[in-house]
């Protein structure tokens, strides 16, 4: 009985303590934990975005490799296919959302390369990605994803 009573008194003393040490500790630790959490979420978004950009470059290279050589190296059509999935020289008035969103396409190039007497299509793109979730804490880093895919020209 005495032991139980001691626990109740001790718990009551802790609850009535107004020194504020716990509040100070929380104000120091909470921003660090928040930045770590948001940074982890943002890093996951960046990896997903990089994968989407890689896939777009691979799909563009595969699509262009099956076209006649005159069409395969048309920069405007290739860029539109990479960004929007539309192989046209002019976009419609309401184009779909680009695959490069939320980033910005800095440079895009389709080139021809000859390797072992075979013509290859090379798709190169530089896409800038900004960490939007980290801007509220004053951090605004950017990454530039450089992707490249090479595919043999098939011309079916």
Automatic annotation (TrEMBL):
The keyword Membrane applies. Pfam families: TadE (PF07811). It comes from the Bacteria. Keywords: Membrane, Transmembrane, Transmembrane helix. The chain crosses the membrane at residues 21-41. It comes from Microvirga vignae. This is TadE-like domain-containing protein. Residues 20-62 form the TadE-like domain.
